[in-house]
Amino acid sequence: MIWFDDRFVPESESKVSYLDRGYCFGDGVYEVFRVYAGQVYEGAAHYERLVRSAREIKLRLPYPLEEIERIVLELIERERLRDGSVYLQITRGVAPRAHSFPPADTQPVLLVYASPAKRRVESMRGGIAAITRPDERWLRCDIKSLNLLGSVLAKQEAEEAGADDVILHRDGIVTECSASNVMIVKDGVLLTHPANRLILHGVTRAVVLRLARELGIPAEERPFSLETLRRADEAFLTSTIMEVMPIVAIDGARVGDGAPGPVTRRLQQAYEATIPASALSGGGGQ
Ligand SMILES: Cc1ncc(COP(=O)(O)O)c(C=O)c1O
Hints:
The chain has 286 residues and is of the alpha+beta class.
């Protein structure tokens, strides 16, 4: 069962119009929520970002936010989702193809679906490999827009290079990954790109920065170079799905001693402490 275009329908009955502006232009915004033990994790922060993304592209929400929240909760219940994710997108609706906005009464189209997912525990323990690539996305990466071609192409390059992910840089300044934020540790200090227009303001990023503060780990939100990245003692990425994921190799070279470092481990443990215990112990499936 999914929510599509004003109602709950079986997946097989959802038909996207060829004139949907999300389909034609990527004209819309989205969110991905994590569900642990049947509960939405950091829901308020995700809804706040959804509202902001919509506002920044002048997109009207199809219903009041409380109604959207109710739909998400009902879907989780209907699907009996315990551990997994909920994908939500809103497009600017169906209208004859023209670049400028459609008539004001065009109804935005909401899609919501749920997927069971296991935590990637093995990768979280052992770490992943990343490559670096130029960040060729647009200049409003703070908006969680449906336009993901820059990320798609970068991630595909990682896959073809046999790496798990891709760290992006603009003119040698590290921004973020294709679908996550990136942090490094150098001489005990946590570094990550400032939350400006060049990166998505990750919900997990914010949680990890808060945890670092609570643990007394010095953290700085400032731009750093590819060179600094290569000299990092530790590196990890953060996202709703990957949580705190150690990066142990970059462009084929080891990060630190090639294993997840102590600061990364502390933050991982602190992050896990914010997740319901039942989701940690082999959580997954419906
Ligand atoms: C480009 C980008 N950066 C960062 C993130 C991480 O954000 P969050 O922690 O809210 O999942 C995502 C998540 O999808 C993303 O697509």
